[in-house]
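Give me structure tokens for this 412-residue protein.
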Amino acid sequence: MTAATTYQRKTDWLGKFPAHWQIKRIKNLFVEVDERSSTGEEELLSVSQYTGITPKRDSLENEDDFITNAQTLVGYKKVSTNDLVVNIMLAWNGSFGISQYNGIASPAYCVYRCLPGNNPDYFGYLFSTALFKAEFRRKSTGIIDSRLRLYSDKFFSIFSVVPPLEEQNAIVNYITIQTEKIDRFINAKLRFIELLKEQRQGIIDHAVTKGINPNVNLKTTEIDWLGEMPSHWALSRLKNMGSYKSGDNLTSEQIEELGDYPVYGGNGLRGYYNNYNHEGNYVLIGRQGALCGNINYANDKFWATEHAIVVTLNQDINYEWFGETVRTMNLNRYSQSAAQPGLAVERIRMLKIPFPQVEEQNNIVKFIKEETATIDSAISKAEREIEHIKEYKEAMIAETVMGKTLGTKMLN
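Here you go.
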């Protein structure tokens, strides 16, 4: 087998691209940098397949959460703007990006700097394609996905297409413009979804506070958020409906993007863990910061963190009725001010809510599901449209970075 044949076999996976483009190994495009922080005071950066490189503080569930459990950030790797930061354990699923920030990153990550004469943003887009992520996976070392590692020598050995710098810049500019249009479409759909959710919540609020019989007699209560309620309903303290307990501590380092059991915090699903601390149907109440009073449902086997209050309801309570009623009462109004708002379990237990019998609870839940079905369908349709445009965006990027748009020269 000739050297030319061997080379062709090693680059066949790149497919077709403009004939005047070059092929180079990544080692000829990037250099690894390993500059360490002497103070640990720089901005700590996070790497995600969804958001790329962002300040770690932006992903905190609560403002007073620790940015990291590490005793010191001294020795963390320095990152400059336009550096490529790669989580070598998750490179195969896109956990990397071109940084827009100066800061520091985990010593376990790799930091690469683009050599002069190239646009790092072009390669950021190129590497994010399914084509290159598949190659990163092939070059990673390990037996199972959670143990794969893309070490620098393997990363550097990968071939890449290299357009002239002028075309790299044009491609980045084109993708930026198209992405802005797509993002505007997505934002408009998201606003539409929010309006639908407000309409949906209005239906729920009325059902859980006034019932579903329009001719029911009402009586006045002394509870501000409730006002009137059906005269045959009782007021009951939350403590009479079940038990309330905070979840168990779990560090952010222990939470994985993939795993055996879902992890719920004060804002719903946060990731996965290899163990569970609850099994069954539960209502979870956010207990700290901006998430005070946030309501989520969890079922089957899952882990609840300390940011959530886990409600174990009595058998004669419909957990969906309970969750929607508590959502309507807005527990955030009962949070206690300290360094940040927080919900004390003992205070929650003493609050009162309107309490119909279980048969009527079930009917209310059934009514809510029927009345909100059309709204839920519209929300789902809008969400699908968002997913479709995201898929289009991914395809647009994949086509553009390989020279299949912008009127480039004939493909070979």
